[in-house]
Amino acid sequence: MKINNKRLKTYIYDNTDSKTRSRANAILVKDLKFSPDYKSVTAKVRGSSHNTYTVHFYGIQNGLISSSCSCPYDWGNICKHEVSVAWEIDDFVDKHDPNTALLPKTTKTVIKEKFSPTKPISVPFTDISGITLAYLKKYASKSAMKQEYYYQADVSVVVSNPDYIHLNLLPSYYYDAPSDVQLRKKEDSLSLLCSCKALNKALCIHQVIALKYISQMPNAFLSKEEIEDIKEELLGQYGFSLKDKQHKNHFSFDFSQGEPQVVLKSRGILRLSKYGDHTPFVDLVLADENSLRNELPFVAKKTRQKQKGTAIGFSFYSYDEGYQASVILTPLMGNLKKDLSGFASKIEVIDAKDLIVRSNLFATDDIAILKKAHAVSWGEVDGLMRIKDTNINHYIHTHIKSLIPLLDNGKAYEVDPYYKITKKNMVPIILSDKSTELSFTVEEEECFYALIAHITINGRKSKLSTKKIGDNFLFVKSKDTYYLNKNLNYAKTLASFKKSPEIRVRKEDFKEYYNTLILPLSKKYEVNIKHLKLKGRKLESAEIKKQIYLTEVDEHIVFRPILQHKDTMINVLSPQEVIETVKNDTYKIKRNTSFENDFIKEITDLHPRFQEQQEESFFYLSLQELVEKAWFLSAFATLKQHGIEIFGFDKLTSLKYNPNKPTISMSVSSGLDWFDVNISVVFGNLSVSLKDLKKSVIAKERYIKLSDGSIGILPEEWLKKHTHLFRAGDVQKSSVKVSKYQLSVIDSLYEQLDHTSEMVKNHDSIKKMLKEFKSIDKVKIPKGIKATLRDYQKEGLNWLNFLDTFGFGGCLADDMGLGKTLQVITFFQYLKNSKKTENPHLVIVPTSLIFNWLEEIKKFCPTLNVLNLTGGNRQKSTFDFKGHDIVLTTYGTLLRDVARLKEHKFDYIVLDESQAIKNPNSKRYKAVRSLQSRNRLVLTGTPIENNTFDIYSQMTFVNPGLLGNIANFKREFATPIDKNKNHKVAEELSKLISPFLLRRTKDQVAKELPSKTEQIFYCTMGKAQQDLYDAYRNKYRDYLMGKIEDVGLGKSKMYVLEGLTKLRQICDSPKLLKDIENYTAPSVKIDELTIQLSEKTGNHKVLVFSQFVKMLHLIKERLDEHKIPYEYLDGRTKNRQEKVANFQNDPNIRVFLISLKAGGTGLNLTAADYVYLVDPWWNPAVEAQAIDRCYRIGQDKKVMAYKMICKGTVEEKIVLMQATKKQLSANIIKTDESFVKSLSKESIIDLFTVPN
Asked: What is the Cβ-side half-sphere exposure of residue 167, based on CA atoms within 13 angstroms?
């Protein structure tokens, strides 16, 4: 708050510092009573300790202003309670007193007394011990003595001198006015004057109370002898006496406040008792853990709208020692001026929610700044202050230090968070991360040596005592610039010396004080001892030892570079002076700068982080950086080569180094389907568990923590060689189990293998054949196949036979439309002719592909006998499969028949569209795993449809054990690849599965196919449809924000999916929503599609896909209106083949409406060459499958595919998200539920926000 009255402001500011004025904010003024003439006022105030005190102000209308308070404040001048009352009476103080110009500077101790018009009363008096009840009865009026027993008043001392006391009485009774009693001591009497109007024949009640009060004052009306004794005692505290003539030059005495005080005429003279009290300074420069922590980085204990301008509001507080938050930041935004020079209007505070919901309002760079600022906002800081042992200003300093370099001019303002922030009360400030610098001089004076603090601000050096630098703990303020203190220790040192910028000690005590304060201080700051002579020599390298002292502080290891000269330890990064005493003479010696620079370079060459730390008084690394690639081993060896001693290594509790080299032994034994790799790693007599070894190997960390807490170092080459083994193998207690299918892992163990065993011989043979894939034994096309196989299909047949030879299962993953079914039918016929298989093959397919398989077997190999194990008639079967080559069933039928099917052993089990079993916890997966067969195959055009984890179930089905257990695969492969985008791990997985997976694309093997073009077809919704979309988008965005806050992200995702589905339905047609089925406004997509089918596509045949069956029905209605013939297929369609044949062969039927899920696979529709995807699907692989119904072998026309997207909606964002999910595999993308599960809070809100 501000004081406007000049007289009152001068009085307050002459007698207070900014700290006292800021503390007055917390004071409550309870009761304000003015005298009838408004010349004085009495107030009751409640202090920060909840005690009530009485404050008086005099001279409000004329003369000198004076004041008093009944609090125990004993620093002289004005207390915070008086300041708070001054704010309240500001408007009542006369502004133009003609006498004030003639008066001297107003100070509290100068109080001009005016006696009342009544005469004083005089009573006999010797000393206060004579003030007894009998004495009062003798000289007081009867009415006064009647009141004396119960009369209550707050008494405060206005002035107390050896012969004069002025008291103020504030009665507890509303009917009695405040009174002033003045007592003046004469030789043998006491003169009393009261401001009340009582007759002065006897003492009034106020005078009685005043006498009772002074009878309890130990220093009231002292004798001359008592005063001299007190002065002697006060001077003795500083090592002086009244007999010393110099004492008058440096000391005076003040008895005005009742308690005798010594007044220092020379700043900073220390009491003798304070000589040893150097802890506040020295603790800051000693390198203990708490001190160093303050200098290290803080470690936590784990429709396009107009773009807004942003700024950061800084609120500075003046708390001592940094125990409370010294700075609070407030992120702000507002509309900018036309010239972008600052805010124009609509300034508002940005909270955490805004950074998510309204992120589109901010530039990318601004978001980073705002997030950093929000970390130091009141909400964040208040929460941290409640956590025990959190050094809140350490946290604030670390964040602000990283923020300042990002702030341009005009981005920082000083604000008062207690008031609404407007353009008027925002004060532009300049922030600098270039700290001020403290330095000191020691100067010789008459009786003292004076330690004088200096501060250098922006290159200009001044005495600290002469500079106004503000009272914030973390910043130095100079004019409009705030300079951030370099660290908390510096801030504490500066705060201490701001209170005492000059310290004086007696000359005879200097040596002691040099050792206790000045020497420790010089280790951090420049200290120039002017009276010491500079000896004409510098330190020679021969008399110096180079040393490194290590200290562990939280998660950092601190390196202090020390030069030892005799008993003196010199930190080479400090300005410390070297002092030498010869024959009682003390000298300064020049430091050897070139030697020290070489020493520093020897250290900074060890690690790139050290280069940037030379401004500190030490170097530091995190524990992780220290042990990474065993850095400390080579670093310490280098230091020793330079003759540098290392101290403190044995005390680093987090880093106990085991000096033994590891003894590693490996052996491999083989079983039926497994290799057991026995591994032993021993450091000295300490064995390493395989579980711990795996953690280090997978993390590629050479160090490993041993059972005694020490750290062992693994050989780098061994680590690189066996990472694959530990990632893919199943770690047991004393061995790693490797499946016979894990060929690349077995190959890495070549030296340890027993090459005489049958299993290893088998492995070597497979390895050789894989290297010569093109020369795999060629298989003749078996008799009975009525088709001409292309070259790549023949290679597929050869590959299937190769796998069969060694008993391996496989995944045929050719692109859709390249004839996977034909290759398998040909392979079955080959087995029938050459190997005379006894058991039938079981082929499991989606319902939509039953007809396709039956037709292709009939067309290409009618000699294969097929049993169609689907439909209700199968219940009549005895499940006797004799005479059948193939048993054909669906995934749905399998679940009903699994109990009977698993009683049979099949030759091959083949899963078509095998992504159907990608979930290892599904009933389908468990059912197919329970079936018996000699071997297994899976067929899919999208082996990785959802994410990397999709491949696990399919490859485990064909080759059990290949990818280990579920948890291991998630941890070692799926998470690193999908979440961390780790390409090296992806390569490892590729090596594991590549021998068992064959994939060819159309680009590789079907180059004769015509081109395929995919385009986005943008649609713009009409006003009614757009308004409905906006309403639902806003509704769900606000709802989801609240839901996420209430129940968390995980439990909110079902509502996310619901919201996204409704928005996508509105984009198609609002009639798809159940709650507004009577909606009559048009659907832009149906309108645009009708135009395309009627006018744009000519005689071309067209496939129209939609996820929503109801949308297909709406399109049907429109086609019927326009008399456009069509075919229709969804999940309920029975006569699928009849529908397909009709579309393929009837030239009048140009349009085929197809449900995306029901018709996305298994259909051959090469008559079509136009495809419309009415609504975008989360998974582009599914969209590609739909397009490939017509883009496959046999297509001879150019294919045009259009994705219909409503502009400015969630559909645009779906397309963008699809693009960003194609990094590790062209097909890695999420489907509905799993896609939503992977979304973060920010990406969810983004989906429900207007696109830029």
From this structure: 25
Beta strands in 317-447 (DSSP E): 327-336, 343-349, 412-414, 427-428, 430-432, 437-444
Listed range (165-174, 755-764, 932-941, 995-1004) with the worst mean pLDDT:
755-764
Residue 125 contacts residue 189 (beta carbons within 8 Å): yes
The residue to which tokens 């003292």 are assigned: 448
Q: What are the backbone dihedrals phi and psi of residue 197, each rounded to the nearest 5 degrees, phi first?
A: -100, 20
Assessment of whether the complete model's pTM goes beyond 0.70: no
Which position has the token pair 């297909």? 1112
Least confident of 458-467, 546-555, 618-627, 752-761: 752-761
Span 1143-1190, pLDDT tens digits: 999 999 999 999 988 776 667 888 888 999 999 876 777 787 788 878
Residue-wise over 644-656: b if at least 16 C-beta within 10 A, else e? beeebeeebeebe
CB atoms within 10 A of CB 1158: 20
Measured from the Cβ of residue 1226, the count of other Cβ atoms closer than 10 Å reads 14
Tell me which DSSP letter residue 972 carries: I
Distance CA 1230, CA 1178 (A): 6
> What's the rounded Cα separation, in Å, for the pair 87 and 45?
13
> From the CA atom positions of the chain, what is the Rg in Å?
46
- Candidates 652, 484, 467; CA nearest to 557 is 652
Q: Any idea where the domains of the chain sit in the sequence?
A: 1-112, 228-265, 308-433, 658-762, 772-1005, 1012-1247
Q: Confidence class of residue 29 from pLDDT cuts 50, 70 and 90?
A: confident
pLDDT band (50, 70, 90) for residue 124: very high
- 308-332 per-position pLDDT tens digit: 688 899 999 886 555 688 899 999 9
Q: In angstroms, rounded to a whole number, what is the distance separating the alpha carbons of residues 1105 and 973?
A: 35
* CATH class of the domain at 1012-1247: alpha beta
Is residue 1185 within 8 A of residue 1160, CB to CB? The reply is: yes
* Partners of 939 in beta bridges: 812, 912
Q: What is the DSSP letter of 976?
A: I
How far the first Cα of the chain sits from its last, in Å, is: 45
Is 905 or 1096 the better-scoring residue by pLDDT? 905
Do 772-1005 and 1012-1247 agree at the fold level? yes
Distance CA 768, CA 163 (A): 116
Least confident window among 214-218, 544-548, 852-856, 1029-1033: 214-218
Tokens of 879: 């499940």
Which run of H or of E encompasses 344? strand 343-349
DSSP, residue by residue, 722-783:
HHHHHHHSEE-SSEEEEETT-HHHHHHTGGGS-TTSHHHHHHHHHHHHHHTGGGSPP-PPPT
Phi-psi domain of 63 (left: phi exceeds 0; alpha: psi -120 through 50; beta: other): left
Angle 1072-1078-1082 (CA atoms, 0-180°, nearest 5)?
70
pLDDT band at 25 (very low <50, low <70, confident <90, very high): confident
Is 724 in contact with 697 (CB distance < 8 Å)?
no
SS3 label, residue 1161: coil
Q: Which residues pair with 1151 in a beta bridge?
A: 1102, 1126
Q: Decide yes or no: CATH 3.40.50.10810 for domain 772-1005.
A: yes
Burial (CB count <10 Å: 0-12, 13-18, 19+), residue 265: exposed
**Distances in whole angstroms, Cα of residue 171 to Cα of each of 176, 292, 478, 1087, 1100:** 6, 56, 48, 90, 106
CA 776, 781, 786: angle at the middle one, nearest 5? 150
The 10s digit of each residue's pLDDT in 73-113 is 534 568 888 888 888 887 667 644 433 333 333 444 333 33
pLDDT average, residue stretch 761-775: 54
Are 994 and 745 in contact by the 8 Å Cβ rule? The answer is no
Do the Cβ atoms of 1207 and 1020 come closer than 8 Å?
yes
More confident residue, 1217 or 186: 186
